[in-house]
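Run log // design_07
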């Protein structure tokens, strides 16, 4: 379990996040949702270990990790713009990190992951020969192959068009469920957060406005901000939102 206790972050005297309390269970998909500039990426980077916390504790399985360097936390991130190596083919991008660790490349886990992300037909392609969705799947595979304990994603769908978005969303859910992988996804898009995550953290101006399941957030918004942000941005009625959930959240 990942726990944040009263975490705050300031850049110089600019308070970006304050009093963040959060508990994320193993295997949960949790979305950090809020408008641009509210502190989502900063929060994700503090969990990853890229950004130091100013105050408070981060615990993983009851051990404080806020002072642990990023490499020792064993969490891993999928970047928004893929960050793949253009001179390597898809397969070599996927196993790049393993080669450095001198791990066995014939591991069944790798072939299973390639199947799970439906990447087999694309393994020999150069990065410029891949579509946006295929690049994102390679990027996810490259991250998961390192067997992170927590998978972090910063706006993973924002570079994709809407049809591809749906399939990548399904793929992320399938991977998280199959591997029981705790997954934290940053997004500014309420529809993405509400349809993809088990729980959603709504962030308003550096504080948690609400932490709950998608149905709780839609049915019992805790503040005018939550209600307005969710409903206005979706520009559709509550009844319609239920249809988006499908079986996953059993409306
Ligand atoms: N390295 C930094 N130095 C100074 N200010 C920063 C830094 N990173 C982020 N900020 C500020 O923190 C606030 C939150 O940024 P960010 O976490 O990127 O928001 P979001 O991801 O929700 O759009 C913004 O006001 C941003 O300018
Ligand atoms: Mg951001």
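design_07 sequence
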């Amino acid at each position: 379990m990942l726990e944040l206790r009263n975490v705050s972050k300031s850049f110089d005297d600019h308070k970006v996040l304050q009093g963040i309390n959060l508990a994320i269970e193993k295997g949960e998909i949790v979305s950090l949702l809020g408008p641009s500039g509210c502190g989502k990426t900063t929060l994700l980077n503090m969990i990853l270990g890229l950004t130091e916390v100013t105050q408070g504790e981060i615990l993983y399985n009851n051990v404080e990790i806020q002072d642990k360097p990023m490499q020792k936390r064993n969490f891993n991130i999928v970047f928004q713009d893929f960050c793949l190596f253009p001179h390597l083919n898809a397969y070599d991008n996927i196993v790049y990190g393993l080669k450095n660790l001198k791990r066995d490349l014939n591991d069944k886990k790798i072939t299973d992951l390639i199947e799970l992300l439906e990447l087999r037909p694309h393994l020999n392609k150069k990065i410029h020969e891949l579509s946006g969705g295929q690049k994102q799947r390679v990027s996810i595979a490259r991250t998961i192959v390192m067997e992170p304990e927590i998978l972090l994603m910063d706006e993973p769908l924002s570079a994709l068009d809407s049809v591809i978005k749906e399939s990548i969303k399904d793929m992320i859910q399938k991977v998280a469920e199959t591997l029981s992988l705790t997954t934290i996804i940053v997004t500014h898009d309420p529809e993405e957060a509400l349809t993809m995550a088990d729980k959603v953290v709504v962030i308003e101006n550096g504080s948690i406005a609400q932490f709950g399941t998608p149905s709780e957030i839609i049915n019992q918004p805790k503040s005018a901000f939550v209600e307005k942000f969710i409903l206005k941005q979706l520009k559709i009625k509550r009844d319609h939102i239920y249809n988006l959930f499908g079986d996953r959240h059993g409306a």
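The longest helix spans residues 162-179.
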